[in-house]
Amino acid sequence: MPAHAQLEKVSQREPPYGFYAKPAICKVEQFTKPKRLEIVSVKPKIVVPALPTQNDLPCDDGVPMETERHKKQMDLLIYSLEPWLGTRGYVGGNMFVYFSLQQVKNKDFRGPDVFVTLDVSNKERKSWVVWEEGKKSPDIVIELLSESTAQEDKIRKKNVYQNQLKVSEYFWFDPHNPDEFQGFRLVGSLYTELPLNNDSFTSHKLGLNLVRWRGIYKNVDTIWIRWATLEGDLLLLPEEAEAQRANVAEQRAEVAHEEGTEQGAQKALQETARKMLAKGYDLTEISDLTGLSTVELATLTK
Questions:
Q1: For residues 117 and 137, is the Cβ–Cβ distance under 8 A?
Q2: Which whole-number Å values give the CA distances from 218 to 32, 75, 83, 174, 181, in the listed order?
Q3: What pLDDT, in 10s, does the model give residues 146-157?
C-alpha cells in the first residue's frame, strides 16, 4: 500500500477505547467599563526641627563680671526690686538672653547685667529664651559699663535692644565712674535720651526712679544707683527692711518703757502724798515735796 494511503487510513481511525476528544469551549468575559481613577495628591511631610529650650542652650560662658563692685551693684538692683515686684514680673542679671536662631548659630551669648520683664512669672530660669516666654522680651535693661565693655554697651548692645529685642527702657551706669549714667526710652522704633532730674531717671514701665545714691553697701562707701519710689523713698534690701523693722520695734519698746516708768513714778508720788495727807500735812507743804499741784492733791482726798 502506498505511504500516503496508510497515513490517510490512520487519520480516519476512531480514538482508542476510553478516550474521546472534548470540543473546544471559548469562554466569553462580559466587558465592563473601567472605573475612573481618582488622583490623590500627597503633600510631602515637612519636619520642623524643635526650637532649643533653656535646657539645651548655654547659660554660662565662665566669664566673671568685670569687678567686685560690678557684682555688688547688680545685686543691689536685683535684690531690692524683687520684694517690690513680687509676682508681677521677673528680674534677673548676668543672664543670657536668646532672641533668634541666628544668634544661637553665631554663639552670641552675652546678656544684660540687669533686666526686668513685666507680666510674666517669677519662676527660676537658666536663661531668658524669648520663644519660650511667648515672644516676650525684657521691658527694662541696665548695663554696667567698664573700660572694656563701654563701647559694646553704648553701640552694639544698644542697637540690639532697640532694633531686635525692642526693649522699652535702656539705662547704663559705670560703678567706677558715676558720671557715666544715661537713660533711654523707645519712642516708635528709636531710642530717645531721657532727662536727668534730681540725680535720677524715671522708669515709666515700673513707675519708679533709678537714682544715684551715696551710701555704704557691702562695706563699700561709694555712689550707687538704686530704685526709689516717685516720692523719693528707696526700695530697701531685705536686710535693710529687717533692720528698719527691728529699729522701729526697739523705739516702740523704749517709748513704752518710758511711759511705764513715768506712770510708776506718778503713782509713787500720789501714794506718798496720801500718806502725808493722812498724817495731817499741809497741802502746800505736800505740793512742795512731791511736785503735785494742790488740785491733784485735792482729788486724792476724795
A1: yes
A2: 97, 10, 19, 18, 22
A3: 999 999 999 999
pTM: 0.67
> Which residue blocks in 60-113 are alpha helix, DSSP H?
68-85, 101-105
Nearest to 160 by CA among 111, 105, 91, 210: 111
C-alpha cell at position 289: 515735796
pLDDT in tens, 174-215: 999 999 999 999 999 999 999 999 999 999 999 999 999 999
Fold of 68-235: tt1808, chain A (3.90.1570)
The reported pLDDT for the residue numbered 10 is 44
Q: Other C-beta atoms within 10 Å of 111: how many?
A: 19
Strand-pairing partners, residue 188, are none
Rounded to whole angstroms, how far apart are CA atoms 93 and 91?
Answer: 7
At residue 55 the predicted structure's pLDDT band, cuts being 50, 70 and 90, is confident
Which cell numbers hold the place of 260?
511705764
Q: How far apart are CA 53 and CA 87, in angstroms?
A: 23
CB 300, CB 270: distance < 8 Å: yes
Taking the C-alpha atoms of residue 86 and residue 89, their distance in angstroms, rounded to an integer, is 7
Please give the Cα distance from 192 to 201 (Å, whole number): 13
pLDDT, greater one: 274 or 13: 274
Phi-psi region of 16 (alpha: psi -120 to 50; beta: other; left: phi over 0): beta
Is the pLDDT confidence value at 299 over 90? no
